[in-house]
From TrEMBL:
Residues 2-328 form the DNA-directed DNA polymerase X domain. It is found in: Nucleus. PROSITE patterns: DNA_POLYMERASE_X. Its main location: nucleus. Belongs to the DNA polymerase type-X family. This is DNA polymerase. It comes from Linnemannia elongata AG-77. One of its GO terms (biological process) is double-strand break repair via nonhomologous end joining.
């Protein structure tokens, strides 16, 4: 997957291979037994014939011959994977740094033109690599919920992402906040602003990767606000964690929950399904009567038909409701 990741171009064969490898890796991670043969590998969902052969090869010879023929540069691939593991660093940047002769994170740290996010990513690098146990995600969720309730008891705050899908540990914390019947940007921005100020005062939010800023146009329209930052629970020996907080319009809450609960592959499938039915699914809702031209490019936005609740969207798409823990595609 790393090989295809470094050589992919959006929409290319390699791009889809990365997606297929990811699906297979997720399926393999979920196993509670060791794969001992190609035949066993083939029985795993998402593992096709070719991949099963490669797994078989790994089991028998400890390596994959195809990588030798591809002139796979292991050092390049490993180094770029290391660079991509820094928050704020994408494939292109990683490749460019490797080309420039950078090999270690200290080489990267010495660069004069790092972005603010890359600096934060490097500062908290060791902490951010660590998975977050469910129990800690829960505690962090409660801190945010308490700040929301302090502002108004009616405000809802939910932890989504892999936590909501029931995973035993998570890469980061994704929190969605909404207030019943409130859709306009003005009020939502105020909610975000109050919650953030409270959490900063508490010393819970320690660094910001992305802060929403005020614009006049918020008054009249539903608007989504996203905060990204670094948080830490109070007390000794706590680890810095990456947290995303979203404040969203009540009318879009279902669509937002679907999107941020994921997983990403499940989102892709639902969007494709909507598109096959002449609809469009986004984090704002489900839209009907969407006209599409060549290569599925949409001609109009369509008419918003559902989005308040997740069930409403599943119903409108005429698919069986999937519980969050079933959305592991
Ligand atoms: N998402 C998506 N496509 C992306 C990124 C994210 O559809 N390219 C959606 C689905 C994810 C959700 O947003 O489940 C949250 O994104 P995360 O990257 O936080 O993923 P998870 O919470 O699923 O996993 P992790 O435990 O690694 O945080
Ligand atoms: Ca997450």
């Amino acid at each position: 997957m790393d090989h295809y990741e470094t050589s992919k171009v959006k929409g290319s064969n390699e791009h889809f291979k990365v997606i297929n490898y990811r699906k297979a890796i997720t399926a393999i991670r979920a196993l509670d037994y060791e794969i001992k043969s190609e035949e066993m590998a083939l029985k795993i969902p998402r593992v096709g014939k070719k991949l099963a052969q490669k797994i078989g090869e790994c089991i028998s010879f400890g390596r994959i011959k195809k990588l030798d023929h591809l002139n796979w540069d292991q050092e390049k691939s490993k180094t770029e994977t290391l660079f991509r593991s820094v928050y704020g660093v994408g494939s292109e940047m990683a490749t460019a740094w490797y080309k420039d002769g950078l090999r270690t994170l200290d080489d990267v740290r010495a660069l004069p033109n790092l972005t603010k996010n890359q600096i934060s990513g490097l500062r908290f690098y060791d902490d951010l690599l660590l998975r977050i146990p469910r129990s800690e995600v829960e505690q962090i969720g409660k801190v945010v919920e308490a700040a929301a309730h302090k502002l108004h008891p009616e405000i809802q705050s939910q932890v989504t992402g892999s936590y909501r899908r029931g995973k035993p540990d998570c890469g980061d914390i994704d929190i969605v906040v909404a207030r019943p019947n409130i859709d306009n940007g003005d009020e939502l921005f105020m909610i975000m602003d109050h919650i953030l100020k409270d959490l900063i005062n508490q010393g819970f939010l320690v660094d910001h990767l992305s802060l929403p800023t005020w614009e006049d146009s918020y008054a009249t329209r539903p608007k989504h606000f996203k905060y990204m930052g670094i948080c830490k629970l109070p007390g000794e020996n706590q680890i810095h964690r990456h947290i995303d907080i979203l404040v969203v319009p009540w009318m879009h809450l279902g669509a937002v929950l679907i999107y941020f609960t994921g997983n990403d592959i499940c989102n892709r499938s639902m969007r494709l399904l909507a598109s096959n039915r002449g609809m469009r699914l986004s984090d704002k809702g489900l839209f009907d009567n969407v006209m599409r031209g060549k290569i599925r490019k949409k001609v109009n936005e369509g008419r918003w038909v559902a989005g308040r609740t997740e069930r409403e969207i599943f119903d409108y798409l005429k698919i069986k409701y999937l519980e969050p823990y079933e959305r592991e595609c």
